[in-house]
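INFO batch 0412 | record 1 of 1 | parsing
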Amino acid sequence: MLRKMVVGLLGLLLGTVALAANEPVTIDFWHAMSSGHQPNLQKLVDDFMAEYPYITVNLTYQGSYSALQGKINAAVAAGNLPTIAQVYENWVTPIQSLLYPIGPHMTAEEIADIIDGLVPSNTYNGVLTTVPFNKSIMVLYYNADLIPNPPTTWGEFYDLAKALTVDLDGDGKIDRYGTALRPAANPEQFLVFLDQAGGSILNDDWTAVTLCEEPGITAVEFCGRLIPYTFVTAEYISDHMGKVAMFIDTSAGYPYNSKAATNAGYTLGVAMLPAGPVNRSSMIQGTNLAVFNTPNQTQAQKDAAVLLARFLLRPENTAYWAMKSGYQPVTKSAYQLPAWKEFVAANPYQQAMSDQMLLGFSQILHPNYGDMRTVLSTKFDEIMRGAVSPLDGLRAMCEEIEALLEY
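INFO prediction complete | emitting tokens
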């Protein structure tokens, strides 16, 4: 009981340190949320400023994710970083020494409430440094008019993909594929199969490539079996909805996939991913929030930015953001809120996304992960297009990733 009281008092102190000072402070928040999402983010920021009236947040749209990354890199060189920004994990690894860790200024309850699969991807050198923000999870989309019961295992997925790949008009060309993959654009689809087989790219301390071990072989051979029944494209699968029976995509893609399905004249279903040999996991994607610890930021600004990050993590706020944006809540307690449960009841497709999110995993934090991802996407594309055998493609992945271990 005493420990709980101490933790609770610490939380109150953490939330009111800057408030007690009551000195006006302005922070810059760089983001990549375009016109569809920006009003909802602005609403949350406005609510924050209403609660902390001495803090002014300059919310600044920096364009696409690539544009945001470029501006952050330029700001690193110029020594003029914002106070807080959206970041992908692989943007952070080369500049983690410039970050102001958020976790040490959070309560134990706040940290424990973050979805388990999101903690490792925000932890650097054993410290929770960044926190999750806009996150989506990969789920299974399917033509409910063709598939009344979505597959729950790899075996069922393969059988359906094979059965639903057909030449409808008898001209010798496939008109509808059982499934689709975007290997060049979304190697995360392969990483889902790898994780579900119990595998990983590297060992825990990043000293060895484990991709070519038995789980990796299992995953790539499964992909190889799917080749004859897979529509392979670098474009969004929603652009080809009429020729695909089922596919793996992010939850954030639901609005586009739903509209495309309607245009194609069929009912879109959403389900959890089929389970692999080891688990039913899925890969979480999206950005985190980072606070910068550079000379151009005062302690008051860093404190204010931490308060903002913690504010956005509150269950009611991450749930609001998810309901308005199509992303998923990033804390466990958000899924228990009456408002979220009512939202899921009104939008049944969200049930599978909610269930899948709690089984999510994130990318590794190796400083060269961006280059490793390029290797994965290139070789996975070659495999699925038949340019190289699955096992040869896997071996090539491992050789090229081996060369990227040093940093």
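INFO post-check: The longest strand covers residues 131-143.
INFO record closed
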